Amino acid sequence: MGATEFNASDASRRFRPIRSKGVVVPTIYGADLIEGALSETVFHDVPVRGAARRIQHKALVRMIRSTIIPRRDLRLVRLHAAGLARLGVTHGELIESGASQYERTALWGQALYEVGNYDGLVWRSRLFNDSFALVLWGDRVDRFTDLEADPDNPPLLLYAGVGFDEVQQLADDIGVTVIS
Questions:
Q1: Are strands 68-70 and 23-24 parallel, antiparallel or unpaired?
Q2: What pLDDT score does 134 carry?
Q3: Which residues face 147 on adjacent strands?
Q4: Following DSSP, what letter does each residue of 75-123 receive, concatenated?
Q5: What residues contact residue 165 under an 8 Å CB cut-off, 6+ apart?
Q6: In the chain, what are the domain boundaries?
Q7: CB-neighbour burial class of residue 97 (10 A; exposed 0-12, middle 13-18, buried 19+)
Q8: In which band, very low, low, confident or very high, does the pLDDT at 137 lie, cut at 50, 70 and 90?
Q9: Cα separations (Å) of 51 from 56, 66, 105, 118, 121?
Q10: Which of 21, 27, 29, 48 has the fewest Cβ atoms surrounding its Cβ within 10 A?
Q11: In whole angstroms, what is the distance from residue 44 CA to residue 99 CA?
Q12: pLDDT exceeds cutoff 90 at 1
């Protein structure tokens, strides 16, 4: 997949699948910091406590880290601070819930998709709350005209080299073991 390519999968994730006129709306997830992006992907299913705080190195084989730049201001529903208060929901209820709650959070995503002319959602990363995570909707954000791959930061493989160094650094910081 290219850096600005949206995912048309209907697999259940936080805030997706979204449907419009019966068709799955493609999505792209991202974060403003590398640690946030890694937390929302590589480390997403690592428990906060316990002996299972590890990831498999081989799970990184198909993963890359890309940096994209919006070419226009994006209209995002804020799922943090006053945005959560306005919706009458807490961070714990909406963001900190695990995979078993994805069906419920997908309903939130669908409802928020339908309320206005927004491009996506933004929230504080569940595992790295210094970072903002986001999801963009591919029928409202055009990958060719609204987004561009950052020419100064080419995609990095997460399995080896600098990309893996970033994964290993965050793993060390949060106490997660990378198993060969």
A1: unpaired
A2: 97
A3: 70
A4: -EEE-STHHHHHHT--HHHHTS--GGGHHHHHHHHHHHHHTSS--EEEE
A5: none
A6: 19-49+66-154
A7: middle
A8: very high
A9: 14, 31, 27, 41, 33
A10: 21
A11: 10
A12: no
- The pLDDT mean for the chain works out to 93
* Structure-token match 């561009």, residue found: 148
* Tokens encoding 130: 């210094």
The torsion of the CA quartet 165, 126, 47, 170, rounded to 10 degrees, works out to 10
| Residue 16 phi, psi (nearest 5) | -150, 160
pTM (two decimals) = 0.91
d(CA 97, CA 102): 8
